[in-house]
Write a structure and sequence with these properties.
The chain has 259 residues and is α/β, with parallel strands linked by helices. The protein is built from 8 helices and 10 strands. The strands form 3 sheets. Strands 2-1-6-5-8 form a 5-stranded parallel sheet, sandwiched between helices. Strands 3-4-7 form a 3-stranded mixed sheet.
Length: 259
């Protein structure tokens, strides 16, 4: 898969993608990342990419022309690739695990890093396929968001993690029908006891079924404590409802889910 990042700060990405999962995937040839300096698609001597907004509001707005030229140039490089073009901004739909999995199905992903007060709305209306936000907060620029999206999407590419089944137990893992998932369960490692803090006995029992039920129960508990909104939307099985009863959360109204 190819990631094309449109930004006014291409050097921003020199370091983040040289570590961890993305770096290993690049080395294996499973993905490639190209940065495109938006200022290269300007024609004035100041290489201007922004201007004051019509209507007299504060701040500056990224102009439509250089972004249009940049996207046309990127698309012309490899026209046969299935490509998705995304604008990263605080006004977009929330980017989540399901979106990461969906975007990994394309051959190429173009990410536009917004800046300043925003981006000319004609970019959203005419040039991109969708607008995404990484959270309900405001960043100084879309570069931070682009790094998050690249990392999250890369994890869904075949061969990147090595063990594809590892997705099944991660936080937010969609169910078999793409529905919302719950948070991951707690994890422990050696030593079994530290300063009187013991690892739950279920994990030391060697009983695989007991361990499985403990993990699912604690995943439901953690979700109820930290992200109750996910629990309200998650399709729950009969066993899930039993486990919720065990931890005193049986009043939670489950959605219609599988048995």
């Amino acid at each position: 898969m190819r990631f094309d990042l449109v930004t006014i700060f291409p050097a921003f990405f020199d370091s983040p993608f040289e570590y961890g999962v993305v770096a290993r995937a690049k080395k294996k040839g499973l993905l490639e990342i190209a940065t495109h300096d938006l200022r290269d698609f300007t024609s004035d001597r100041h290489r201007s990419v922004d201007d004051r907004p019509f209507g007299g509001e504060e701040g500056m707005v990224l102009m439509v022309e250089p972004l249009c030229l940049a996207l046309e140039s990127i698309a012309s490089e490899e026209p046969d690739r299935s490509r998705r073009t995304v604008l990263l901004s605080a006004q977009g739909r929330l980017f989540d695990q399901a979106a990461a999995k969906r975007l990994a199905g394309y051959d190429a992903l173009t990410l536009i890093c917004g800046r300043y007060e925003g981006v000319d709305e004609r970019v959203t209306e005419q040039l991109v396929d969708e607008e995404l936000s990484v959270g309900d907060f405001v960043l100084s620029g879309g570069e931070w968001a682009a790094g998050i999206v690249v990392d999250a999407v890369a994890r869904w590419l075949p061969g990147v993690l090595g063990n594809e089944a590892s997705h099944d137990n991660e936080s937010f893992a969609p169910d078999s029908e793409g529905g919302v998932g719950v948070l991951d369960c707690p994890h422990y490692t050696r030593p079994a006891e530290f300063r009187g803090w013991a690892v739950p006995e279920e994990l030391l029992s060697g009983d695989h079924e007991r361990i499985r039920r403990w993990r699912r129960r604690e995943a439901l508990r953690k979700t109820a404590e930290n992200r109750p909104d996910l629990l309200e939307r998650a399709p729950l099985s009969r066993e899930d409802r039993e486990l919720l009863n065990e931890i005193g959360l049986g009043n939670k109204k489950p959605t219609d889910g599988g048995e």
